Amino acid sequence: MKKILTIAGSDSSGGAGIQADLRTFAKHDLYGFCALTVIVTMDPDNKWAHGVYPIDIATIDAQMATAIDGVGVDAIKLGMLPTPEIISHVATRLEALKGQFPVVVDPVMVCKGDKPLFPEHASAIKENLVKYATVTTPNLFEAAQLAGMEKIESYDDAVLAAEKIMKLGCKAVAITNVGSVMEPKTSADLYFDGEELLLIEGIHIETNHTHGLGCTFAAHVAANLCKGYSKRESVVLAKDAIKAGMKHHFPLNEYVGTLDFAESFKHLGD
């Protein structure tokens, strides 16, 4: 059985982060390791306001050593790394491992909203992490931050952002939700590997039940790469999984909802 490590945050509501990653890896018949970088909570008495509690670097390092040095891994997926110091430390680890196996960088910069988690957070991801990515999977906000653009407001903007992100050193980029800035709206994602530019289409579903979609998409990409699929195949298959899951999205409470995880794995033969 192939082994995959997620270095990411714990989502106390269960829909995103480490929880979504390990659920995805298991469905792909992969052995999942985790290294927690942060615990994210939600306050039910304050309109689901997020609390962000970073984990100390020594503890993160011990977790990474358990998986990487203690057993060995076949792929790594990065999620929320909440401070520039943690980002820099993980990057040092990736430098020592460079080229040994695929790495997916989900450049998580926010819990919800449009501001980076901490000062200099976006620039730390841009400068230290993206260059190690076999595939990086930013949403529109994150892609704009990585590309040094104010906003992405059109397909052409997304193409420009993808070109700029590739110059940071990654092998491929998949910008999610590009279809939301197109007419008519779709759920299309944009894949670019420096040669092929591919718009992966999907029907737009008007819903706010999108909690964990970015994490789950990136986890599918990482799992597919771990299993030997190409970059392009890994992204296209991940998109298929998300499209299937979003057809039957559901609420968790009055504030948040998510995709149907069971539906998102039907393409795997469940």
UniProtKB/TrEMBL annotation:
GO molecular function terms listed in the Swiss-Prot or TrEMBL record: ATP binding; hydroxymethylpyrimidine kinase activity; metal ion binding; phosphomethylpyrimidine kinase activity; pyridoxal kinase activity
Top-level lineage group: Bacteria
Transmembrane segments: none
UniProt keyword Metal-binding present: yes
Class in the EC hierarchy, top level: transferase
Keywords on record: ATP-binding, Kinase, Magnesium, Metal-binding, Nucleotide-binding, Transferase
Gene Ontology BP term (one): thiamine biosynthetic process
GO cellular component, one term: cytosol
UniProt catalytic activity: pyridoxal + ATP = pyridoxal 5'-phosphate + ADP + H(+)
EC number(s) stated in the UniProt entry for this protein: 2.7.1.35
Annotated ranges, domain Pyridoxamine kinase/Phosphomethylpyrimidine kinase: 11-259
Family: Belongs to the ThiD family.
Protein name, entry field: pyridoxal kinase
Source species of the chain: Ignatzschineria ureiclastica
Gene this chain is encoded by: thiD
